[in-house]
Amino acid sequence: MLEIIHHGGATGVTGSCHQLLLNRHESLLVDCGLFQGEDAAEDSFEQLQIEFDISTVKALIITHVHIDHVGRLPYLLAAGFTGPIICSIPTAKLLPLVIEDALKIGFTRNAQLIERFQAQLEKQIVSVPYGKWHSISDVSDHNGASAGTTRVKLKRAGHILGSSYVEVSYQDAKTGEKERIVFSGDLGAPYAPLLPAPKSPYGCDQLVLESTYGNRQHPDRRQRRATLKAAVEQALANGGTVMVPAFSIGRTQELLYELETIIHQARSSRWQSLEIIVDSPLADRFTKVYRELKPYWDKEAQGRLRSGRHPLNFANLYTVDSHAEHEQTVEYLAKTGRPAIVIAASGMCAGGRIMNYLKAMLGDERHQVLFVGYQGTGTPGRDIQQYGPQGGWVAIDGERFDIKAGVTTISGYSAHADQKDLLNFVKRMRRWPHTIHLVHGEQTARAALKSKLEVLYLTKGKQVNVLSSS
Ligand SMILES: [Zn+2]
Q1: Which of 5, 248, 387, 420 is the most buried (most CB within 10 A)?
Q2: pTM summary value
C-alpha cells in the first residue's frame, strides 16, 4: 500500500496538501493550499513556507482553485518546484487569476515579480481533459531503470467550475502490482446551480475523502431557494441591505444564478427593481471567466441560455470596481437603507471589502447578513453567525461591533457534499476502498462520518480502515 502524507488539511478544513509516495525518491502532490482561520498559526509566515522535501515531487495535481487548495503554490514555486502542474481545462483558465490575487495579498506588489511568477506558472500548467488518463513520466529506481508507471485522471467534482477529483493509478514494474488511489478534493452537492453532480469512480484501494459536512445534511434546493427569497424579502420590507460574504469563485456565481431564477419567477416589481451588487473586482473577473466557460455548465443552465436568459449577466446586476466607488457604495447603502443585495469577499469575513459593510451596517437592524458558506472556527464570520442571533457582538480589527442586523444562514449553497452525498460517493463505487483517509473537516465532522462509514461497511460485510488524525 502506497503511503500518503498530509502536509495540511488533515485536521482542519483549510491548507489542503497531500503527498502520495510512489517510492523513496518519487512522489505526487495533490493541492497546495493556504491555512485560514483557526488553522492558521500565529506566525503565519512559517506556515507559508514549504517545510517538506520537494525534491521527490514529480508533479502537482490541483483539484480546484479555492485558496485553501492552491494558496501555497507561489511558495512551492519559490522553493524550486519546476514539475508539471496538472489540472482541468477550466481550472487552467482560473488558476492564473487566483494566483495573481494570492501574490498581491500575501507575497509582493511588485508587478515585475508577479509577471515573472505568472509566466513561470503558465509554463508549468498542464491542462488535461476530464475522464482521460494522463501519464506521468515513468518512475525510476536509483539505477535509472523504470520502477513503475503512474497515470492520473481527473473527473468532475461538481464543487466549483473546473473542480475535479483525482484518480491515480500506479503499477509497480517489478511485481506488476497495481494500486488505485482517489483524492476527492472538495466534492460538490448534487443540484448545485450551474454544475453537474459528481459521479463516483468505478473503485479504488485508498480514498482520501473530504469531510467538511461529514456531520450535516443540507436542505433541498427548493427549500434553500425559499430561505434565500425570505431573507431578501425581510430586508426589502425593512428597507435594508442584504450583505452576503462570499468567496469570489463558485458561490458568488451560484448565488447570482439563483437570484436570476427568483427575479425571473417573481411577479412583484420590488424584486424586478432590486439591485444586486457584486463589490469585488476579483469576483467580477471570475464571473466573466465563468461566462466564457459555458460549455462546462450543466444542462439546466444550458437550457436557460438557449431560451435567451443570461444567468450570470442580467439587468439588475451591478459591479463595483474601484476602491473609491466601494467606499461610496458602503456609505450610500448604510445611510439610505435602499434595498440591495451586496455580495463581497471574503467568504468567512476575514478581510476583504465585506468588512467595511459589516462595520457600517451590523449595528442597524434594517440590514441582514446572509451566510451562504461554511464559516471556519475563529473567523469573524463564525462569531457573527453564532452570536448575532442572540444580540451579541463581534470583534473586527480589535474593535467591538454590536450585531443588531438580522443573521441568516443557508447551508445548501456551500457547494460541499453533505454526509449523505459523501457516503454515496463510496456506496456508488463498484469496488469499495479498503482504506479511507478522512481529511478537510473539523474533528466532530470526521468522527461522525467515520462511524457512518464503518456502519456502512459492516452492513455489507466488508472491512475498512478509516483513518482520521486527531
Ligand atoms: Zn473548495
Answers
A1: 248
A2: 0.87
